[in-house]
Amino acid sequence: MPETSPVGGGASYAAAGVDIEAGDRAVELMKEWVKKATRPEVVGGLGGFAGLFDASVLKRYDRPLLASATDGVGTKVDIARRLGVYDTIGHDLVGMVVDDLVVCGAEPLFMTDYICVGKVYPERVAAIVKGIAEGCVLAGCALVGGETAEHPGLLGADDFDVAGAGTGVVEADRLLGAERIRPGDVAIAMESSGLHSNGYSLVRHVLFDRAGWSLDREVAEFGRTLGEELLEPTKIYALDCLALTRTAEVHAYSHITGGGLANNLARVIPDALHATIDRSTWTPDPVFDVVGRAGSVERAELEKTLNMGVGMIAIVPQESVDVALTTLADRGVDAWVAGEITERGNRAEAVTLTGDYAS
Q: Where is the PurM-like C-terminal domain (predicted)?
């Protein structure tokens, strides 16, 4: 007996929910933005099966070390989705990736992205890529390729997620890290632009589920709506950190992301040493206090989840402090001496936070 076709004709990719034409349209719309995020070493253009980067640039290094990092932006994408604002989330993605690269002293060279959607809306996808491209420009790296995947049935039509991977290079004898840190070194903190891209599961739980706030709520402490505050893009420090390594002696960086200041700084503190960070040297942005009060969140919980106003830490010798602060100030980065490195002694922990935040 011959097989019968389902009602409505034979099956197709489009009938399954995947719109190839919409994907092609999205590629066309994003081309102008990708062209802006380039470097002289990029070979070819958008549309190939792989991005090409001329590795002969590495010949100028004696012993080039390639650095690689990958990340996403977590549940911050939910804020972008709810607000229908898609051209800033890419800044967050780039910041999460390239600022991990620069921690070891690596110059970011190129990035690729992965965008997963429930349904391809070309203008929406192009807006996401626009933000990624703009972030790459701010980081001095190229966007050499990416992938947009449509997952009907797994994601709702308005749902999406983004991820990215980056590659950088550093001269082996200029590699930064724990082995360079010495007693007497100073911790210089660089101000964050707010929450950045970590802790949004806690923030959403507190402000939406418990406090019942809406994204269009005007919040006096912010001077703008809740949604505008939560969507503030992650500050990208890559070029600032690279400039700092050219003008001052830098021993290590710590990118303050998920896990908070103490946990991330501990990753670059040698076993025999200890970092003391004085909270009284800065005042966290109001968003951190608002989240704490709205959810009755204890300070220890906030500090192990959110950056509390510090996005990057540089560890420098005492004699480099003045030039380091001047360099960062000249680049428009708010920075200050936040602590010091000493012998650990009998302390079990690598990092201690002391004092109370300045009011």
A: 182-346
Alpha helices in 226-333 (DSSP H): 226-230, 238-247, 260-266, 286-294, 299-303, 321-330
Q: What is the CATH number of the domain that holds 305?
A: 3.90.650.10
Q: Both tokens of residue 63?
A: 């012993």
Instruction: Give the structural domain span for 185.
Output: 178-354
* 98 occurs within a structural domain: yes
Is position 7 within any domain? Answer: no
SS3 state at 283: coil
Rounded to whole angstroms, how far apart are CA atoms 162 and 116? 6
Query: What does the pLDDT look like over 58-71, one tens digit per residue?
Result: 999 999 999 999 99
**Residues 6+ positions from 124 with CB-CB distance below 8 Å:** 86, 117, 160
Distance CA 359, CA 357 (A): 6
Which has the closest alpha carbon to 110: 88, 139, 134, 130? 139
Q: Where are the beta strands (DSSP E) in the chain?
A: 42-43, 52-53, 64-72, 107-117, 142-150, 160-171, 186-191, 218-219, 224-225, 252-255, 273-278, 310-316, 335-343, 351-354
* Torsion sign (Cα): 176, 181, 185, 186: positive
CB 174 within 8 A of CB 186: no
| Number of domains composing the chain | 2
Which residue type, as a one-letter code, is found at position 121? Answer: Y
Q: What is the mean pLDDT of residues 172-181?
A: 97
Encode pLDDT of 263-322 as tens digits: 999 999 999 999 999 999 999 999 999 999 999 999 999 999 999 999 999 999 999 999
Own/partner contacts of 219-225, CB < 8 Å, gap of 24 or more, are: 219/290, 221/286, 221/287, 221/289, 221/290, 222/286, 222/287, 222/290
- Give the model's confidence band at 23: pLDDT under 50 very low, under 70 low, under 90 confident, else very high: low
Please give the Cα distance from 75 to 72 (Å, whole number): 9
Q: Which of 171, 204, 219 is the last residue of a domain?
A: 171
Predicted confidence (pLDDT) per residue in 28-39, tens digit: 666 676 677 788
CA geometry: angle at 131 spanning 198 and 166, to 5°?
Answer: 65
